[in-house]
């Protein structure tokens, strides 16, 4: 039942994707080949590992580990909110880190959300988009999956401002946490994958459009500019908030 609802929600969301999001894929042959490579690797390695992990690790433990990782993720959220001039959100994220690191036992329990401090999902790609940098063409990266030219260029900054690099000195510990994080995240997507298989005739196109729509919504905090008509050209720079960029006529 939940899978069917999720599939229906994804399908309705994709109907609202702007035309540019559905066509901004000039290197589609390469992207499809890379998607096939990633999908094959997932099927033979990552998915079976995630299934075994989900069967062996109780849900409360998986949720606790996810909360622990999110506590590290809140550090770059603070940095990018500051870079975007969103001081209130940055202060809220600082409060989240303080509460969860103490009363939440290093973040295992998400105490901050109970106090009304919601997470703000921010990264440097969103910061660039906030200040008017266009997303550029869609690209599928090996192992990492969906991205855009802008978000790919932002990856080094995201890597070096990641919370674990600022807190944990041991490379071995950081790598172990990163590996477990990947498996934990993949295990959380097992149900969603079933819904995707039911909803999509072309999974590549479905994932591409969903990713581009989601990134657009994240850049504009859920309030993206209205797209122009189908015959007009539109991209994220048409209404970059607080960047002094206005919509083209």
Automatic annotation (TrEMBL):
It comes from the Bacteria. Residues 221-249 are annotated as: Disordered. Keywords: Lipoprotein, Signal. InterPro entries: MlaA. The keyword Transmembrane does not apply. PANTHER family: INTERMEMBRANE PHOSPHOLIPID TRANSPORT SYSTEM LIPOPROTEIN MLAA, LIPOPROTEIN VACJ-RELATED. Belongs to the MlaA family. This is VacJ family lipoprotein. It comes from Niveibacterium microcysteis.
């Amino acid at each position: 039942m939940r899978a069917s609802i999720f599939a229906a929600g994804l399908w309705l969301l994709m109907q609202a994707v702007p035309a540019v999001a559905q066509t901004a894929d000039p290197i589609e042959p390469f992207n499809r080949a890379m998607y096939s490579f990633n999908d094959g690797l997932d099927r033979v390695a990552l998915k079976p590992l995630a299934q075994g992990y989900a069967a062996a690790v109780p849900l409360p433990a998986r949720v606790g580990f996810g909360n622990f990782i999110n506590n590290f993720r809140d550090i770059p959220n603070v940095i990018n909110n500051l870079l975007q001039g969103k001081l209130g959100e940055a202060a809220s994220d600082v409060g989240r880190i303080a509460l969860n690191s103490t009363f939440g036992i290093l973040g295992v329990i998400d105490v901050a959300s109970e106090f009304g401090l919601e997470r703000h999902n921010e990264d440097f790609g969103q910061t660039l988009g906030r200040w008017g940098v266009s997303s550029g063409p869609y690209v599928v990266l090996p192992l990492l999956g969906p991205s855009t030219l802008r978000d790919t260029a932002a990856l080094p900054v995201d890597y070096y401002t990641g919370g674990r690099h600022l807190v944990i000195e041991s490379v071995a510990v950081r790598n172990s946490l990163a590996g477990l994080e990947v498996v934990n995240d993949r295990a959380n997507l097992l149900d969603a994958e079933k819904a995707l298989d039911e909803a999509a005739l072309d999974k590549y196109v479905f994932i591409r459009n969903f990713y581009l729509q989601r990134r657009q919504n994240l850049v504009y905090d859920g309030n993206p500019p209205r797209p122009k008509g189908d015959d007009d050209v539109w991209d994220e720079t048409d209404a970059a908030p607080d960047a002094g960029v206005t919509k083209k006529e």
